[in-house]
Write a structure and sequence with these properties.
Layout (H helix, E strand, L loop, with lengths): L6 H8 L4 H7 L5 H14 L3 H9 L2 H10 L18
Length: about 90
Amino acid sequence: MILKLNFEIVSTASTQLSWSHFIGISPLKLYEEKLFYLNESIRGFISIKELRRMINHKAYERKEIADTQLTSNSLIPIGTFKDPYL
């Protein structure tokens, strides 16, 4: 399967991340998952070692589980929690 890339995202991310970051996320299957880890790396100035740790500990999946535990009428905004510990 060929993944269509948004060149605006790639060119912006390439100025802020190393090649190792892109190699680190390349095995991931979901486009949303890749974007999550890229955004986390850019926003938090995360090293490649920390990025690999986040991927191994499944930070994206844990955030998704935490978001599904929130109800639609909850006062807590979606994306607040990164772990399903509610």
